[in-house]
Amino acid sequence: MENSFFDEMTGFNGDLRTPYREYSTWLDQVDLRTLKKKSRQAEAFFRKTGITFNIYSDEDAEERLIPFDLVPRIISASEWQRLKLGIEQRVRAINSFLHDIYHQQEIIRAGIIPENLIANNDAFLPNMVGFSPPAGVYTHIVGVDLVRTNTDEFYVLEDNARTPSGVSYMLENRETMLKVFPDLFSNIKVQPISDYPALLRKTLGRSAPAATRGKVRVAVLTPGIHNSAYFEHAFLAEQMGAELVEGHDLQIENGRVVMRTTRGYEPIDVIYRRVDDNFLDPLNFNPESQLGVAGIMDVYRSGGVTIANAPGTGIADDKAIYSYMPDIMEFYTGQSAILNNVPTWRCSETDSLAYVLEHLDELVVKEVHGSGGYGMLVGPAASKKEIAVFRKKLMSRPAAYIAQPTLALSTVPILSGSGLAPRHVDLRPFVLVSNDRIDITPGGLTRVAMKKGSLVVNSSQGGGTKDTWVLEGP
Amino acid sequence: MLGRTACDLFWMWRYLERSESTARLVDAGFRLTLTRSQNTKKEWMSVLSTLSCTEAYFERHDQIVTDKVVDFLIRDKTNPASIMSMQTRARENARRTRTALTLDLWEAINEAWIELKQICQRPISNAGIPEILALIRRQAAIVCGCMHGTLLRNDIYYFCEIGRLIERSDNTARILNAKYNTLVTTIASGGAPDANSQWDMLLRSLAAERAFYWAHEGESSADLIAHFLILNVEMPRSLAHSYRQLILQLQSINQHYGEDAPASYRLAKAFDDRLRDLTIPAVKKLGLRTFLSGFMPNNAELARQIEIDYRFKA
Description:
The complex is a heterodimer of chains A (474) and B (314).
Chain A: H1 21-28, H2 32-49, E1 53-54, E2 63-64, E3 68-75, H3 77-101, H4 106-109, H5 115-119, E4 141-150, E5 153-160, H6 167-180, H7 182-187, H8 196-206, E6 218-221, H9 230-240, E7 243-245, E8 250-253, E9 256-261, E10 264-268, E11 270-273, H10 277-280, H11 296-301, E12 306-308, H12 314-317, H13 319-322, H14 325-333, E13 340-341, E14 345-346, H15 350-358, E15 363-367, E16 377-378, H16 384-396, E17 401-405, E18 411-416, E19 419-428, E20 430-433, E21 438-440, E22 445-449, E23 463-470
Parallel strand pairs in A: 3-23, 5-13, 6-7, 6-11, 11-12
Antiparallel strand pairs in A: 1-2, 4-5, 4-20, 8-9, 9-10, 14-17, 15-16, 15-17, 18-19, 19-22, 20-21, 22-23
Helix pairs in contact in A: 2-6, 3-14
Chain B: H1 3-35, H2 40-50, H3 54-60, H4 66-74, H5 83-96, H6 103-119, H7 129-150, H8 155-178, H9 180-189, H10 197-205, H11 209-215, H12 222-230, H13 239-257, H14 263-277, H15 280-286, H16 288-309
C-alpha cells in the first residue's frame, strides 16, 4: 500500500522500515483489545500522577491530560547520529550569535543581518549588552523542533532558546511505557533517557556565579500552580533535588538572591527560571509583574546569581531571525548547516508579501512573535472565510508575519478506535549546554496531531505525545 | 525548607483534618436524624453551628432539610467549608509542595480528590450518603497512612503533624462547645445521660464511641465523657493528647534545626502544662463554656506564633 506521506514505520511504499522491524514483530502478536486496555492503563497512570496541564484561555482552568499514544516513534542509531551533529552545530551557533549580538555585533557589521531586525525587536534586551553570563553560556536548555519529510530530509521548524517545555513528558512517557510494556524493553534495546535530570543539575551547576560558596544551590523559579507547565516545574525540581520557588519566596540581600526558609534567608546560586524575561524583574522590566524578583537583573549583572536561560535569548529563536539561521550558522561555525531550514518568506519584503498573498491557500503563515500554535494560518486546512480574515490581518501588518510552505510532515501510527492509523508528528530533542560540552538526550519529545490529516501538533491545540526511541547499535 | 512550603504543608493538613472531621460530624448528625426523626432540625442546626456555617447555609437555603444540609456540607463548591472545597484546597497545597511529598502521599491526596470530584458531579441522594461518608473516611485513612508510612521524619513531617494537631484540637473543642448545653445539664445534675443519643453523637463525631465504652467498661457519665475528650491522653482526639503530641513535634523541629526553642514552643508548653494540671471538678468550677472559649483562642494564638517563628509569610 502506498502512503501519501512518509511514514516512520512504513516509509512511502508501505514496506516496513528497519527501525520498526522488532517492534512490528511484537505488535503482530498483540491484539487490539489488549492495546486498548494498555492505553487506558497509561491514561489512568497519567491522571493519578497528576501529569496535567492548564489551558490559558479556559476561564475555569481545569487541568487536562495531554493525550498519550502508545505506539512509539522509533529512530535508528545512525539516523540519530546525524541529527545529533546537526543539532549540536545549531546550538553552538545560537550561543555564538547571542554573545556577538550582545557585544560586538559583527554579524550586523558584516551585513548578514539587518540592524533594525535586532534594534527594533522586543526580544532584544538592552540590559544584556556588554554583559557575559557565567561560564559564557546563554542557553543552558534548548529545544529544537524538527520535522521529517523523507528518509533523509529533516527540517528545523523552530528553535526554542527561551524556556522550552515538554521534557517532563519525554521522561514520563518513557516511564509509562516501561510500566505498561516491560516485555518490549527486554527484547528491544532502546537508549536510556533517564539521566536527563542529573545532567540538567550538572549543567546548571557548571554555570555557577562567582559569588558561589561551597555546594552550588539550584532553584527552579515557577510562576505557580496555575501555569500551564507547572507540573513540569515541580517534576524537574523534584528530580534534581532543587528548591521549587515562586517570586514571593525570594528577595535581594547583600547582592545575592535569597529565599525565605523556615530558618531565615538563604542564598541561591543558580536559578532555572520558567518565567518569561518580561516578568523576571519588575524593577527592570514589566513593573506589574508579581512573578519575578525586584532587582534580580542587577544581582545577575554583578555576578551574584546565574539565570538560566540568560535573559534576552529570545532574540535567537525569534521567528523574524529564523530565516537567517543558515547564514548565522555559516558565519559562526564556518560550515554550512547540516539540518535544513524551512524556506521562509519574510512578509516585510514587498516581493515576498506579493507571493504569499497569492498563495495563502498553500502556505503556513505565522505571527513573528507568536508561539504555541496561536495566531497562525495553515492554508490548506483553512476555509475560504478564514483565509479572507487572515489576509486582512496580514495586509495591515505585513512585517509581523512570515510564511512557509506546508511541509509534508511524516506520520507515525497511533492507536485509534478502529486500530492503527497514521498521524503527523514532529520531534523536539532537548539539548543541555555547558561551557565545555553539549549533551543531547537521545530522542526527545514526539508530538502528534491526534486529528486525522491535521498538521498542528501543539498540546494547546489538541496535540498528543508519544514515547521516542533511539535504538542501540547500528 | 522554604517558609512557604512549611505554610502549605501546615494548611494542607488542617484542611485534610477538617474535611475528615466534617465527614464524621455529618455522619453522626445523619445517624441521629434517622433514629430520632422528630428532632432533625435541631440536630442539623447544631452541626451547622459547630462548623460556623449557619449563616452561609441560610444564604442559600430557606429551610433545614437533610439532603440540602448534607449537600451543602459535602459537595457545595460555593461553601468554602464543604468537604469538596476542603479537599480541593488540600490538593492545591499538595500540588504546590509536590517536591516535599513522597509519590505515595501525593498520589493518595490526588486520587482522593479525583474520586470525590467525580462523585460530587451529581447531587447526593439520601441513600448515597453513608457510602460517600465511608469513602471520605477511607480516603482520609489512606492519606494518613501514606504520611506516616512514607515521609522522612524531618521538618516536612513535623509541619504536617503540627497542622493536623492544631486543627484536631480546634475541632474537638468546637464539637464539645456545640454540645455544651447537654453536657452542662447532665454534669450539673450529676446524673447519667438519659436518652444517650446526644452523648452517642458527640462520641461518634470524634470517632470515639467504641473507645469510650471500652475504656470505661460500659460505665458512662457526663464527667467521664468530659474527662475522656479533654484530659485522657490515650484518646487520640482529646485536647490533652493533641497538645502532648504538639509539644513533641515542636521539640523535634528545634532538635532538627539545632536551635533554641522559639516563642511558639514556650506558648505550647504553657498550654500543655495547664492541661496537665487540670481536673474535671476544676473545669466544672470554671464552667465548661468558659474553659472552651479560653482554649480555642489560645489554640489560634499558638498557630499564629508558629507562622511567625517559621516564616510562613514574608
